[in-house]
């Protein structure tokens, strides 16, 4: 049995214009220690799904089983106890502005009635874990966005939860801070073997840290799989749009930039290489040079890494004899690197 199991879960709301199927027949399994991403556009049903996982909503039908416990059956004190096992991280941090970093972090422990000494020791541990040492006495207003989210994460971890649910946890942060917070989540996942479920409308968040992903559209999970596989061969139109969002537009060279490069580097061929995460761990660039004897000049490119592979596009100038260049072309194909000729002499 998986750690989290959803079986045919439906959640309907009575909206102004009739019944809304916010979550429509979703079945999912999530393993212990996994970082599982749920991606979808606004209104797809992600927040409702999260609220079903933390017991804030009851499904209209279906089962939500976590650690072999049917969450739907929990009531009163048992439901409150269950909620403590689930940490929540929010997009807008939800910190108390009149409390310091340390006071925000210990809040759930205070509510739990933990003795002062014990909770202070736990807070010190958490502050260390999330990298806020030295900022304990600061107030939220004195912190950067990334630091505020670190407080949010520490507070979510205070009760030593079994699951961390992140609701657009990085959507209010700039790209660099987003990366730092994602790194922190990855560290926590590894150190504590904590199961993390995160929802987002940003595919790069999924690429960066998730093991598996479910794509939601109109209340349904339309596609699910290993992140690498979904990136490499997205099946549904909505998934293709999300994957495109990742490769375009910043990472894709524009026609003008290609024209400029062709003028500047008229010799040989100019190839556009696309790394979609399917490649083996081979050092493709150095190997192609050694094996085929071509000269290869990297003109432009953005290659990013996720947990397991490289993604992105690269423009290269390849020079050599006709046979050497053809061999290089064949090598890229064999390595499952997408290759397109942009220019040849
Ligand atoms: N309490 C509610 N009452 C009525 N309709 C609701 C309620 N909660 C959600 N919905 C509707 O259910 C659908 C899914 O909403 P949900 O918030 O889960 O989507 P989402 O993917 O999280 O989008 P967003 O990121 O915009 O919150 C939407 O059409 C929304 O209007």
TrEMBL record:
Q: Decide whether keyword Nucleotide-binding is in the record.
A: yes
> What organism, scientifically named, is this protein from?
Vagococcus entomophilus
Q: Which UniProt keywords apply?
A: Amino-acid transport, ATP-binding, Cell membrane, Membrane, Nucleotide-binding, Translocase, Transport
**What Gene Ontology biological process does one annotation of this record name?**
amino acid transport
The function of this protein is:
Part of the ABC transporter FtsEX involved in cellular division. Has ATPase activity. Essential for cell division and viability.
Q: Which PANTHER family match?
A: AMINO ACID IMPORT ATP-BINDING PROTEIN (PTHR43166), METHIONINE IMPORT ATP-BINDING PROTEIN METN 2 (PTHR43166:SF36)
Stretches assigned to the ABC transporter domain = 4-243
Name of the protein: Methionine ABC transporter ATP-binding protein
Any Pfam family matching the protein: NIL
Q: Which GO terms describe its cellular component?
A: plasma membrane
Q: What is the lineage of its organism?
A: Bacteria, Bacillati, Bacillota, Bacilli, Lactobacillales
Q: Which family does it belong to?
A: Belongs to the ABC transporter superfamily.
Q: List GO molecular-function terms, semicolon-separated.
A: ATP binding; ATP hydrolysis activity
Q: Which reaction does it catalyse?
A: ATP + H2O = ADP + phosphate + H(+)
What SMART domains does this protein's entry cite? AAA, NIL
């Amino acid at each position: 049995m998986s750690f989290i199991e959803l079986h045919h879960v439906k959640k309907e709301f009575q909206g102004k214009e009739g019944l809304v199927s916010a979550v429509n027949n979703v079945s999912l399994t999530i393993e212990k220690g996994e970082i599982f991403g749920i991606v979808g556009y606004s209104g797809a049903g992600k927040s409702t799904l999260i609220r079903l996982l933390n017991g804030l909503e009851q499904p209209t039908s279906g089962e939500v089983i976590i650690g072999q416990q049917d969450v739907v059956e929990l009531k009163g004190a048992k439901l409150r106890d269950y909620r403590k096992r689930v940490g929540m991280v929010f997009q807008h941090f939800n910190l108390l502005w009149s409390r310091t970093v340390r006071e925000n972090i210990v809040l759930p422990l205070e509510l739990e009635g933990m003795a002062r000494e014990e909770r202070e020791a736990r807070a010190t541990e958490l502050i260390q874990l999330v990298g806020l040492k030295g900022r304990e006495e600061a107030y939220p207003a004195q912190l950067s966005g990334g630091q505020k989210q670190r407080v949010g994460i520490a507070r979510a971890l205070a009760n030593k939860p079994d699951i961390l649910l992140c609701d657009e946890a990085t959507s209010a942060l700039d790209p660099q801070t987003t990366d730092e917070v994602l790194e922190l989540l990855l560290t926590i996942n590894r150190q504590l073997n904590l199961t993390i479920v995160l929802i987002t409308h940003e595919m790069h968040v999924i690429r960066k840290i998730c093991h598996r992903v479910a794509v939601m559209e109109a209340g349904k999970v339309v596609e699910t799989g290993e992140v690498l596989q979904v990136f490499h061969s997205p099946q549904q139109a909505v998934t293709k749009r999300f994957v495109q969002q990742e490769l375009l537009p910043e990472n894709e060279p524009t026609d003008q930039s290609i024209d400029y490069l062709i003028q500047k580097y008229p010799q040989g061929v100019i190839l556009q290489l696309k790394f979609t995460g399917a490649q083996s761990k081979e050092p493709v660039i150095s190997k192609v040079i050694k094996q085929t004897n071509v000269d290869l000049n990297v003109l432009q490119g953005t290659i990013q890494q996720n947990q397991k592979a490289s993604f992105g596009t690269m423009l290269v100038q390849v020079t050599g004899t006709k046979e050497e260049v053809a061999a290089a072309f064949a090598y890229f194909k064999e390595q499952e690197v997408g290759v397109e000729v942009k220019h040849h002499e």
